[in-house]
Amino acid sequence: MTKPTPDTRKATPVKDGRLVWNHSTHIPGLIPILERLCKLDGIQTVTPGQLGRVKGHSPKLQLRVSVPIRGGFKLIARHGKTVQEVFILTTLPQQQLEEAIASVMQK
Asked: What's the pTM?
């Protein structure tokens, strides 16, 4: 049996990231955005986290990068008086992740 050369190896297909469902409730409209985000290159895992209430009011759904974590970033999703943490494991730098979020939010 011969060793595969770079010419004979098949290219591995690009694998979509995965969306982890560990909470039964989410901010309305957040899941479709996270599903679109999972399909982008460089995104491995998207995990919606804890829900909370805030004093301020955000009329439209907002998704912004909060802090870096090991292997990715923590995002904050806000809509109305509800806030939800979202953890993303990615190889993208923060600037490219912010651009990716902006592009999926517009669709």
From this structure: 0.81
